[in-house]
Amino acid sequence: MNGGERTAVLAGLGTCLPRQEVDNAALLARLDTSDSWIRERTGIAARRIAGADVSVGDLGHAAGENALKAAGLATVDAVVVATSTPDRPLPAVAPRIATTLGLGAVPAFDVSAACSGFLYALAVSAGLVATGVAGDVLLVATEKYSDIVDPADRATAVLFGDGAGAAVLRSGRRGDPGALLGVDWGSDGTGRELISVPERYDGFLAMAGKRVYLKAVEHMAGSTLRVLDRCGWAIGDVDALVPHQANKRIIQAVAQRLSLPERKAVCALERTGNTAAASIPLALAHGQEAGTLGAGDRVVLTAFGAGLAWASAGLVWPDITTVRSEL
């Protein structure tokens, strides 16, 4: 591919987190655990939990509105929403968000790939742009895992939080800062029971922790190497790795597997926990604010989640704005 080929370019970021922060101490009354146990094994000190009056659509609307502001746009040609915790099985969340944002009758649909949802939706959105089907696309990742996590299950209750992140993609060329340079994605349905919600309407999330850990490290590291090859980069060229924020040990193990210095792996879950599909855009916003991501940096995004599904993407970080809010 050459620098003139049409591709999707990252033009702005938006985030929205619930105002309520639940720290580890608040969990001790109902769970057989301790603050030190949670921090040592997950790196999480607190997570944001949305109230009953705040929906997945509400969080997604706010994040999407912020991304549009960041990109300086009032409208887009399509809306793609990544979520594994929709407010209802039907209809999709995306048309509601498109309508509440005043975007008119634009095409809008959901993508369900659990913690890999943002990158799956990124790949789909980039395809719309690259083929000329859409010029500008609003990509929203929004989750409310507090609706599906058993508050009495130590294995999951300490991990997950709620939140949303969004990105605006515009049409551009491969030589532009922020251009998507390569994508790798895949799935393995034989592992579908490792992370699942058995009951359609009222079941809780179940997860085989040790096996998920091994699969996450294997697939995120492998997918990262494949996307590096597609971008024409070596591991030493990478300035920042932005992995799905599952837990700190997985992030550390992926960096180690790749022989990448741990300081180059963005870890942004200490005060938010695992926000599934929303974790990568939230981590991007954190990395930009902390100075971990700077204009011109070669950045790789990678994720793994239920399905099993995994994905990675590579881009050169642009000089963009992030707009944040709380609900």
From TrEMBL:
Pathway: Lipid metabolism; fatty acid biosynthesis. Its EC number is 2.3.1.180. Keywords: Acyltransferase, Cytoplasm, Fatty acid biosynthesis, Fatty acid metabolism, Lipid biosynthesis, Lipid metabolism, Multifunctional enzyme, Transferase. It catalyses: malonyl-[ACP] + acetyl-CoA + H(+) = 3-oxobutanoyl-[ACP] + CO2 + CoA. Pfam families: ACP_syn_III, ACP_syn_III_C. InterPro entries: ACP_syn_III_C, ACP_syn_III_N, FabH, Thiolase-like. Residues 245-249 are annotated as: ACP-binding. Residues 228-317 form the Beta-ketoacyl-[acyl-carrier-protein] synthase III C-terminal domain. Gene3D superfamilies: 3.40.47.10. The active site is at residues 115, 244, 274. It comes from the Bacteria. It is found in: Cytoplasm. Catalyzes the condensation reaction of fatty acid synthesis by the addition to an acyl acceptor of two carbons from malonyl-ACP. Catalyzes the first condensation reaction which initiates fatty acid synthesis and may therefore play a role in governing the total rate of fatty acid production. Possesses both acetoacetyl-ACP synthase and acetyl transacylase activities. Its substrate specificity determines the biosynthesis of branched-chain and/or straight-chain of fatty acids. HAMAP family: FabH. This is Beta-ketoacyl-[acyl-carrier-protein] synthase III.
